[in-house]
Design goal:
Elements lengths: L1 E5 L3 H12 L3 E5 L3 H8 L10 H10 L3 E4 L5 H4 L2 E4 L14 H12 L5 E6 L7 H12 L5 E6 L9 H6 L3 E6 L2 H10 L6 E5 L1 H32 L3 H9 L20 H15 L4 H24 L4 E5 L14 H11 L3 E5 L4 H7 L5 E3 L12 E4 L11 H7 L4 E4 L6 H6 L3 E3 L5
Length: 430
Amino acid sequence: MTITVVGHGYVGLVSACVFADFGNKVWVVGHTPEKLQRLKNGDPIIYEPGLAEMLKKNIAAGRLHFTDSFDPAVKESAIVFITVGTPPKKDGSADLSAVYKVAENIANNLGDKFTVVSCKSTVPVGTNLEVEKILIKNKPKGATIAVASCPEFLREGSAISDTVKPDRVVIGSNDKNAIKALLDLHATFPGKRVVTNLPSAELIKYASNSMLATKISFANLISFFCEQTGADVEMVLDAVGMDKRIGRVFMYSGVGYGGSCFPKDVQALTETGKHLGVDVSLLESVEEINHEARKLFVDKVTKHVKGKAIAIWGLAFKPDTDDVRFAPSVYMIERLLKEGYSIKAYDAAAMSNVRKLISDPQLELVDEPYSALEGADALLVLTEWNEFKQVDLSKLKKLLKSHLIFDGRNMYDPEKMRAEGFTYFGVGRS
């Protein structure tokens, strides 16, 4: 099958590479010449384990093509996927301008045949009906179209595995031919098939991400209780998670969620609910707790650190990605800099993206984790990269001036760290 993927971010590029790897001819349409050239050269632009190898393999096999033109890509394709971003507006609602512009460009380049236009971008309920109106208004007379929603559920850091081995494939459409085409495309993928209407498919994506965000905020809410009572949040959540109805997955306390999905999707669902007259106080609380978690963590740092030199390990919002969108580290760095601290920071992949966001002489990004410790009054651990899990404690103690550790991901055992001579602060740890 020949397909087109419009957009080459995490969703678009990973989807394109996986579909090509399964033997399809895939066009990827972008609009930035520099990025397209890098992609043609086998540079995936984003950091994602295994993506560079899959990209190069399918370019060499002649199955993956990059272009800034919708023609001939759209004309050749049986299915066209929209995977462009839907960032939050100031009020938290999703900015759909890129989706609608892409729909217009697709319509103008349709061939004299049947084409499925499927949205993988995360969009509010009703968006695909608007896409359908745009397609019908702008398409050539000989073209026939059907609109579908086929949301993705990939996690940054494990995006390829999540795409190749999904828990479920959701296909929403009111057209039987569109459903058949998408089922055929996903025939070799494992996972359950959920075939539904357009609004259900659109809402499934938001509901999934909001539930995961809720579990994280619930864990942080419990950590607030633990901080005040001497209870240990890991013991509490371990015991709670033993209940099969609840489980422990995603129920971890820390410095809160970030990234390109949870923050904007919780906000977008909140704004959609307000528009529909739905009580969204639960979602508003999820977001408030997320902000409170990072605020309380910094409050703890400023309360206990007497000097002004801070070391930070971890900048990405999670390990195995270079994404710092809505990352807790960005909030913390900006606040600490504002309060007069100097910072040395290290991350395995995200430092170039932080450089684009924060330019301050008091922030130094170093190429090796132990270099950040020299002369520091405290260490903040904000991302649970594997290389931080089994550190050289004697070296850590020698370099870190005040032996203060603030573990924002509860990576270390409090008793062990204190036995080694560190003053250790986790999140909700007694």
